[in-house]
Amino acid sequence: MEKAIRFLAEWSGLSEAFCTKTIYTLIGLGAVWVGRYVILRFIYTRYDSTAARYLSRKLSFYAAVILTFIALGMVWLNDLSGFSFATYLGLVSAGVAIALKDIIVNVVGWMYILARRPFEVGDRITIGDFTGDVVDLSVLEFALVEVGNWVRAEQSTGRIVFIPNGMVFTHPIANSTRGFNFVWEDLAVLITFESDWKKAKEIVREVMERHTKRFVKEAESEMKKAASRFFILYRNLTPIVYTSVKDSGVEFSMRYVVPPRSRRKVAEDIWEDLLEAFAEHDDIDLAYPTYRAYYNLTEGKDGARKGGKKAQETEPPPPPAPPPPAS
Which of 20-24, 237-241, 267-271 has the lowest mean pLDDT? Predict the structure, then answer.
């Protein structure tokens, strides 16, 4: 080794100390990266899992980078006065912390999830733009079976979304099953102005209660448990129908509690019974956006008709047309 170093120094014109450090650097780098290659080959022959291979590539790369910096420090900085290896190691650690910031944040996020439990495996949550059921929780990420998106009524899309744990610090989390295992649903029905709206409202109320009243008792029990942990003031869980007027007719808004995963099924049952019930009454019609000409003098109420005719009678006649110009 000494002869090789001496030959390299004479051939390059550099000092023997510099050539020694260069050779040790090359040996150290070769050992680190060749060792990484050998370890990866061993893992690839033992495991077929894509996730295991991906994780081994990432971790081995980070480990190799860290070992490279440590090796460089041991070779090049061990004889600098006033600059100890411990100081170098501290600087390297700070650099690694900055470079691996996202991974560190994800690990801290994992600890936060385990400690605070904003959600658990099996909960349906919304975080950022994603909604789904939590199916896995790991050190760096958690997995959701996505619902919603292009599929209506929060039905599964069939995709699994992997979300970094660090998102719990930057995005609000809505948990539909944690604490209070019910959500409020609002289902609207629109009928024409000519329909008997009072009769229609009674039908809507009867159908809604038939399909949702069974949830009230269980929801009240869940609400009492949630109230012991959260400051909850509104505890009236009775289904109710609100009436309002829209451009195309009279709207009934059904508001009721329902388990999060039963929203679509309950809405379907309500709609089917409503369609059958409305079909039995000739004075109830569903409304939809239409354009209509309305003449108050013939279609309005008696008082409105009289007022319109009186205004028409007292209106002064239009001025006569001017004579044609002389030729």
Answer: 20-24
Residue limits of CATH 2.30.30.60 in the chain: 118-175
Alpha-carbon separation of residue 266 from 56, 124, 260, 275, 292 (angstroms)? 47, 18, 10, 14, 35
What is the chain's alpha carbon radius of gyration, rounded to the nearest angstrom?
38
Report whether CATH 2.30.30.60 matches the domain 118-175.
yes
pLDDT in tens, 153-190: 677 888 899 999 999 999 999 888 877 788 889 999 99
The CATH number that domain 183-279 falls under is 3.30.70.100
In the predicted model, is pLDDT for residue 20 greater than 70?
Answer: yes
For residue 36, give every residue at least 6 positions away whose Cβ sits within 8 Å of its Cβ, in sequence order, or none. 60, 61, 63, 64
Global pTM reads 0.55
CA distance 248 to 203: 20
Confidence of residue 104 (pLDDT cuts 50, 70, 90): confident
Cα of 99 vs its chain's centroid, Å:
28
CATH 3.30.70.100 region(s) of the chain? 183-279
Average pLDDT over residues 212-227: 85
